[in-house]
Amino acid sequence: MRELRERIAYLQGLAEGLELKQDTGEGRILGEILAIMSEMVDELEQLSEDHQELEEYVNAVDESLGELEEDYYNDEEFLEDEEDEFIEVDCPECGEKVYFEEDVLDEDGTVIEITCPNCGTIVFSTEEDDDLYLDFEDFDDDYDDEEEPLEETGDGE
What we know:
Blueprint (H helix, E strand, L loop, with lengths): L1 H16 L7 H48 L2 H8 L3 E5 L6 E5 L11 E3 L6 E4 L32
Antiparallel strand pairs: 1-2, 3-4
């Protein structure tokens, strides 16, 4: 900033040395340009000071926040967050894979519906009378899809 201020002062000195008359068009324009440039340097200096103060304040807040994190959070809590388990469900309409945290199933009595972000179809619901209800504890990986369906007899029996 000091260099800018010195250069503007030099230009103002040159303008005075040339004895430009303020009553001519060129003299008025040059005088106003130099005045505006001087005001701009003043504003830039103020902005620079404000920026410096703000930077110091942000650094102090960051330092304080770091100390608070060290005091109130331990590494185990952060590790638990990283180990969240997700459930993957395929959307029956569009085939999109939908992921959600397993923790949402732990909320007792709350009906949870997970919708596909692609098409909006409900892909999972905790409502028991819903066809989409899944009980993950009783899920059988060995389920055989090839069971023969029951046949109806035409006798009315």
